[in-house]
Design a protein that fits this description.
Layout lengths: L1 E9 L3 H19 L2 E6 L3 H8 L5 H6 L5 E6 L14 H11 L4 E7 L12 H4 L3 E7 L11 E5 L2 E5 L6 H16 L4 E6 L5 H14 L6 E6 H10 L6 E4 L1 H14 L7 E5 L4 E5 L16 H13 L4 H16 L17 H10 L2
Helix pairs in contact: 1-10, 1-12, 2-4, 6-7, 8-9, 10-11, 11-12
Bound molecules: 3-isopropylmalic acid and manganese (II) ion.
The site of manganese (II) ion has 2 residues, from α9.
Amino acid sequence: MNYRILVLPGDGVGPEVTSEAIKVLNRVAERNQLTLHYEYALIGGAAYDAVGVPLPKETMALCPGADAVLLGAIGGPQWDQLGPGLRPESGLLGIRAHLGLYANLRPAKVSTPLVEASPLKREVVEGVDLVIVRELAGGIYYGTPRGIIEDGPQKTGINTEIYRTPEIERIAHAAFQLARKRRRKVTSVDKANVLESSQLWRETVTRIGREYPDVALDFLYVDNCAMQLVTHPRRFDVVLTNNIFGDILSDEAAVITGSIGMLPSASLGTGTALYEPVHGSAPDIAGKGIANPLATILSAAMMVELSFQLPEAAGRIVSAVEKVLEEGYRTADIASPGQPTVGTVEMGDLVAERI
Ligand code: IPM
Ligand code: MN
């Protein structure tokens, strides 16, 4: 089998962590008689610096030919002052829209060797295995009207939280279908006590839920969910939520697993899917060779499972990561005080050797 992967290293630690994921993918390819072709393109601040926009046409033109996209990270303080549409984040939002990616899967699983790295007590986090299904194509991220209006001496900032029934239906189906491959429980998270968009969300998810009588469904308000994620994280299996709540809750879910440097993600639509670590570009440690590549390596595993439909090969990547952790290797972000650490490249080598 032949696959084309579009690699968008991006900014900060992005290039360092994507090259380790590619190292691991190449090892998987050798073992599974796959041929992987890589094409590289610009996104984010790196694209802005090179060609003046965060999502160049050349990058978008390469998407249709790709079987999957692997993205590193985008953003950095040097681009924070740029106008709307020019910031690195616009590049990411633009490619999500361009590829029609509406379902963002963010699994948060506590790996046993890392229980001590969690800021929460062992008895709270042990065994946590949840996935946030974040609606990625709508809501306040894309709703109009939006903007900053100048009326006289004062200004008004506007964003619009908006959901239409079909947008809720398709993400609800994605969540229920995923739950069927897991522990068959969906928790839908909204703010239906205040927001009409959430009332429609709840009504629609309830209706779609009737098509999945084998999946348990419950609802939480987002503030309560934020609390339960740190008090009773084991109660969650699939968490279904909108774009902005999913953004916030997935960082919270990530940190309870010990390090945001561990969390992968997949963004799915009807065509080419995109895989990226949940963490950002970490400009403070960029270029130092100390970033944790495991989130990107695990994102590559999601690619192998979901885009290449090779669950066994994907499982081999996940097992290799677990093995490395069991053997005690740690990057700085997941090390206990005083524990020796390995760098980005060494961590990538260790995983690749165990495939
Ligand atoms: C994420 C990020 C992005 C988002 C930013 C960089 C636009 O925080 O993927 O979670 O808000 O979706
Ligand atoms: Mn985020």
